[in-house]
Amino acid sequence: MHAKKNCQTKVARGVDGALLLTVASSDLKLLGLNGDERRRMKRRLKELRAAHEKHLKAIKKAEKKAKKK
After folding, report:
1. Intervals of the chain under pLDDT 50
2. Cβ distance 31 to 13 under 8 Å?
3. Which domain of life is it from (predicted)?
4. Number of domains the chain contains
5. pLDDT of residue 5
6. Which residue segment(s) compose the domain that 41 sits in?
7. What is the dihedral of CA 52, 28, 37, 33, to 10 degrees?
8. What is the SS3 assignment for the chain?
9. Amino acid 21: pLDDT
10. Confidence (pLDDT) at 61
């Protein structure tokens, strides 16, 4: 429940997926997250960035493969 409320708060403040990829620790503090929440969010953001990079590589690979055909 807390995570849902937290998510709604961030959406209300204009934080979306694209912006999350660029969020720094200091930004999380400005958003009002306490130390434990910041630590969890930083871990999740790291996972999100890694997944995003993996997705971009897959798209690039698919485009390259399509050009060869």
Report:
1. 1
2. yes
3. Eukaryota
4. 1
5. 56
6. 2-68
7. -150
8. CHHHHHHHHHHHCCCCHHHHCCCCHHHHHHCCCCHHHHHHHHHHHHHHHHHHHHHHHHHHHHHHHHHHC
9. 84
10. 94
